[in-house]
Amino acid sequence: MKRHAAWIAAAAIAMAGCATTYSPDISIDYDHTANLASYRTFGFTNQLGTDRAGYTTLVTKYFKDAVSREMEKRGYEYDEKDPDLLVNFYTNVREVNDFQRTPTMGYSYFNYRYGLYGTWPLYETAYPVTYKVGTVNVDIVDGEKMQLVWQGVAEGRITQEDLKNQQQGIDAAVGEIFQRFSGTAAPEKVAS
After folding, report:
1. Model confidence, pTM
2. Is 151 helix (H, G, I), strand (E, B) or coil?
3. d(CA 47, CA 143)
4. For residue 51, what is the domain's CATH number?
């Protein structure tokens, strides 16, 4: 009976380890003197951090679409010519080498004898794993002062599904970042 309980405990621990989700870690920082509600329009910087070799990448297009959607949800209007806020974004992907630990049930030659010769019921087995970690920065800059007023950073493990569906991954990361964005555009003043 004790051996059966130990096996159940080992299986429960192993399943809990497999149930891990890879949601990103989000951090924000902002200029505490800036009033984000005083701005009404947004645009993008001339040289975006995701563009390479002088042309616009698909990743840049996905970011522009996701950021525009989030800014417009908050009442900001897109203005290509003279925006109050400029948005830029950067990405970085790096490989991480780590060890995955898995609990296993101990067994030895002496298991047929109970008592002093039995093995300890749970051991950890460690094996090397390599995975990708992505970082996304979204910078929002005062267009007149050219000063950063808000920054959001998402960092998390990239799955094979994320690599196959980059647009979905970018939409999700930008959405997570903007959940922590506290600004809403000031309502337009109506002339009397």
Report:
1. 0.71
2. strand
3. 14
4. 3.30.160.670
